[in-house]
Amino acid sequence: MSDDQQSPSRRRTLIKTLVFVPMGAGAAAAIQQNLPNATAAAPAEGKPDAYTPKFFTATEWKFVIAAVDRLIPHDQHGPGAVELGVPEFLDRHMQSPYAAGAIWYMQGPFLEATSEFGYQGKLALKDIIRVGIKAVDAHCASSFSGKAFADLDLRMQEAVLKDLEEGKIKLADISSKLFFADFLAEVRAGYFADPSHGGNKNMGAWKMIGYPGMRGDYLEWVKIRDKPYPLGPVDLAGRRG
Amino acid sequence: MAIVKPKTDAVIVGMGWVGAIIAKELTDAGMNVVVLERGPDRDTQPDFAYPRVIDELEGSVHRKYLQSLAQETIAIRHNGTTSAVPMRRMGSFKPGTGVGGAGSHWSGCHFRALPEDFKIRSIMEQKYGKKILPAGMSIQDFPITYEDLEPHFDHFEYVCGTSGKGGIINGAQVAGGNPYEGSRSREFPLGPNPDYLGAEYFYKAANAMGYHPYPIPASNASGTYVNPYGCQMGPCNFCGFCSDYGCLNYSKASPNANILPVLRGRKGFDLRTMAQVMKVNLTPDGKMATGVNYLDAQGRETEQPADIVILAAFSLYNVHLMLLSGIGPAYDPVTKTGTVGKNYSYQNLNRVSLFFDETVHANQFMGIGGGGATFDDLNGNRNDPTKTGFIGGGIIWARQPGGGPVRGIATAPGVPGWGSDWKKGAKEAMRHSFYFEVQGSCMSYDDAYLDLDPNYKDGFGRPLLRMTFDWHENEIIASQYLVGKAQDMCQVLNPLAIKGDAKKAGSHYNINQYQSTHTVGGAIMGDNPKTSALNKYLQSWDVPNVFAPGANAFPQNNGYNPTGMVGALAYWCAKAIREQYIKNPGPLVQA
């Protein structure tokens, strides 16, 4: 799954820089130079906006950036989730009524049920994410001589994510499959949702997949078969991508 | 002390399709109606205005236009021996809320039932003998016929500006339509919508297989249109936001766009939103309703007295209110007596996705909820259970309601869910894949029913509705048969890959995955008060001034989407109230 040949520690430093420190264009270019596999085909969309997390703690934020970068990396197919601002999306989304359980049924009793019945826990989304991050970091610390998830090398991070996805890791306090599925769904939502929500900067994810965004009018193109849809995306604010 | 409002002629619970139709018909007859809607008021402007309405995060993740489960949900179990657990996150089906209800966020597929769908039990028994029905299958005939409803099917299509092609008009076959449909009294109000690539491919495959494809009847206008009420529609522009969303374009028929413009401001029409009906009040002997109790927008307990109570909520909540209020005897699955909650049924849906190379421009971001193509060669009387092994039938269709990336991009088999390979797969699939679906009937059974849950309460302290439901062998065989036919069609088209399987033997109903909002039954119509909650006019056998038109009245589900039938039943019910009940209140059918 990895496309990234660079030294893990060097890339980690770059990611930290990318998110915590406002940068100029030069810094963004420097990042691209350090992504040898990716730069030829897909220039980075730029840098994420400077952002200070309000929901996530500094420790959680390290996890978020590292995991987001593994789930949707920058590569020859297009921009990565970190450069498109998905960590900002996540931090903002975790503060929404939705993440606090506004549209979920949250009353007990909380009974065990088979997977066909869906989520039966008592945690709201923001707590699933928070409890899950803590548990994954604790698992990593006990398995990898005290290291947090973000401090593992990239391949090891991917291996941990894969094990979480498949439920192979037993986490304290939460199902690893549940945490992984909810975290991934949030990352994808941030990557693809309208840029006004914090991710998908400059509609980079829409451009990658050829989604015209919020155009909302294709009647003229319904019966065209012999050429690709020609127009780039438009976002909710009316910007052209 | 409860607030008591002045008495009204009729109180209507819910402002979706049924509520809007009944309110229109009763106020036309000079009656005063109060409509109590649990959700907010909504109209095209400003609620469905471009571009805000098509924000995928708000529409399909926050589910802004759907019911929140925080206040009301249901508890589910597979069989009567276990405890049910609540549906905590929206999954298998999506009830609406607010003015328009599910009628504002539906797709627009607008079918009539087939004539044989009304008589399925007697047709099966006559054709194949009584033993053809497996033990525990509790299907029943509707107490009315296709011919009874035809004028109402027709009128509802003209209210909705339904776009399609008739197959049989006044008994004469017409090329291009469904050759198996019930006879129509006239052509659709609008012609079919244009075909996107997936629909065009569907015709190719269906014709190659010898089927008789036709355009799905779509209440997504193919042209400009003015309905009989003077409400205007514009041609659908394939924006790709039907399911989950209100229409930004006055193209998808909805109570909001097609009926409410003439109701709002009408004398005798009083719409109260954020009004949560708690129960129907009955006289001490339980034989008549006196009105309803509701919580107003401020949470104040309020009583609305009325001569007639119309339950026009989402089908499940109609049954919930009947159970909570003691309208009719609750169904007991052990003794198989009682009627309210009996014959809960669903829809048997499976999807098959087709993946092509970059020269095939499927453009699944374009979409029209009800458009596309289908056929009835495997539906209704065409299905011979002695050959296929199942009762019922189903349709296969190409439908493209519009796919956006937040709603999910189906990727080809073998593509992982994240990382570089996922990005590559999502990119390849986004513009170059589409899907066919199998929509099968679902029979009803003694052990599939609704009652009140003993453990869980809703946000108002009332017991949750409990659903006991699982797939039966009949529906699993049907799924395997119909999906097999869909896969055969896919082979004709020679895609790079196909993804999607039928239900496997022994597989259980999964509430996680969205399948269909076509929940039906639970308060069914019939000709016998021992085996149905409602008579042929959708009137409670037990409390004759309560009517419950809606999909709850279906004794089982056919292969079609229910909205066309629900609208027709609402007009049929309203006609009975206007022409019979108000002249002579009381039971319209003697038990």
UniProtKB/TrEMBL annotation, chain A:
Q: Would you say which domain of life the source belongs to?
A: Bacteria
Sorted keywords for this record are: Oxidoreductase
List, alphabetically, the Pfam families matched: Gluconate_2-dh3
Q: What is its EC number?
A: 1.1.99.3
| Record GO terms (molecular function) | gluconate 2-dehydrogenase (acceptor) activity
InterPro entries cross-referenced by the UniProt entry: Gluconate_2DH_su3, TAT_signal
Annotated signal peptide: none
Q: What is this protein called?
A: Gluconate 2-dehydrogenase gamma chain
Protein species of origin = Massilia aurea
From TrEMBL, chain B:
Glucose-methanol-choline oxidoreductase C-terminal domain spans which residues?
449-570
At the top level, the lineage of the source is Bacteria
According to its UniProt record, this protein's enzyme class is: oxidoreductase
- Which UniProt key words apply to this protein? FAD, Flavoprotein, Oxidoreductase
- Ranges for domain Glucose-methanol-choline oxidoreductase N-terminal: 221-344
What the entry lists under InterPro entries is as follows:
FAD/NAD-bd_sf, GMC_OxRdtase_N, GMC_OxRtase_C
GO molecular-function term, one example from the UniProt record: flavin adenine dinucleotide binding
Q: Give any Pfam family that matches.
A: GMC_oxred_N
Renumbered to this chain, the signal peptide range is none
Q: Which family is it part of?
A: Belongs to the GMC oxidoreductase family.
**PANTHER family in alphabetical order:** LONG-CHAIN-ALCOHOL OXIDASE (PTHR46056:SF12)
Q: What is this protein called?
A: Gluconate 2-dehydrogenase alpha chain
